[in-house]
Amino acid sequence: MSIQVKNIDKHFGNFHALNNISLDFPEGELVALLGPSGCGKTTLLRIIAGLESADGGQILLEGEDATDTHVRHRQVGFVFQHYALFRHMTVFDNVAFGLRVRPRKTRPSEAEIKKRVSKLLDLVQLGFLADRFPAQLSGGQRQRIALARALAVEPRVLLLDEPFGALDAKVRKELRRWLRSLHDELHITSIFVTHDQEEALEVADQIVVMNKGNIEQIGSPREVFDHPATPFVFDFLGQANRLEGQRQGNRIVFSDDQLVLPQHYQHQTDQPKQSQGSSQDNVIVFARPNELHIHVNAPTEPSLQAKVIRDVWLAGQIRVELQDRQGRLLEVALTPEQQLSLTLQPGQTVWVTASNLHLFDDYAA
Ligand SMILES: Nc1ncnc2c1ncn2[C@@H]1O[C@H](COP(=O)(O)OP(=O)(O)OP(=O)(O)O)[C@@H](O)[C@H]1O
């Protein structure tokens, strides 16, 4: 089922939680709502579900206005961060619950329920736990059962709110792979909320990046990562060096230091901008750690002078932390070979050049 969100607005008192949000969720896709804590992800999910009402705007399910449709009739399945399993029921009874509480007319027979629940438990690969109680399961197993329970009522939409948020890193990783393959099998239109960029990049077909009740960017993981539309998205997707300076022709100037802009930005300097005050030339540039390069002697090309703080070994990757002359911390990636040949010492002066920079014009520095 496709979902359309049209001009959704939501206030909590004076606080503007969602600001005129419009989004299309195509049939059968797995979409991540990604953003920092408090940006409005859960509120949007709850409005789509019918658990919360909006101040204005519409929710269309399969093209039909569902804004005033009760949650029970929207045919959505939920999975929340904190396992909402019934503690006094076995795994089997938990999964069967949604079917057993149906009105008699639409309720399947016990034999049919047994068949469906067994099939779902096989799907989440936990058939052997049917007789256990939630307290006898691991966190990851509980979330898989919660998913089986959400699927039991054959929802047309699956909404997941930080489904793996409470689990440790290894189990999270396993479960997100498993969710992706389950989705590839079932193709239920699914929206999941996360503040974990790695999770969104790994699992989703599309990512909606949110910030302070607004949408910053919508795109495939590749698009969002390779072409972040705003400084916020660049920052949020992580691990980039953010430098604020002034653009002067082909260069970015930071007090005493300079970096050269990559070729693809340089043609823009041919057309002088109409002056709107001095802030016009203020720019934000980002460089990923592998786009910066360390020199132990001052290079002839423009560079940033910095001091070595330390190098960090991060799961096979080497990152050197530097502090530049403006006091900013920079992270530069090195291969093990580069680390050996540079032999950097804490406190040593080095120079940094950039093989690529990502420029955001007209942002006040
Ligand atoms: N019932 C409520 N009453 C008042 N304010 C609320 C209510 N629900 C949410 N908010 C506020 O609205 C904002 C958005 O909340 P929401 O839960 O949607 O954020 P989120 O992006 O899901 O964050 P998190 O990742 O922390 O769950 C927050 O600032 C929150 O404090």
> Which ligands appear in the coordinates?
adenosine-5'-triphosphate
Determine the fraction of residues in helical runs and give it as a percent range: 25-40%
- Domain count: the total is 2
Strand content: 25-35%
- CATH architectural grouping of the largest domain: 3-Layer(aba) Sandwich
Q: How many DSSP-defined strands?
A: 20
Q: Could you list the spans in which at least 5 consecutive residues all have pLDDT below 50?
A: 270-279
pLDDT averaged over residues: 89
Order of helices and strands: EEEHEEEHHHEHEHEEHHEEEHEEEEEHEE
CATH topology of the largest domain: Rossmann fold
Keywords: ATP-binding, Cell membrane, Membrane, Nucleotide-binding, Sulfate transport, Translocase, Transport
Pfam families: ABC_tran, TOBE_3
Organism: Alkanindiges illinoisensis
GO molecular function, one term: ATP binding
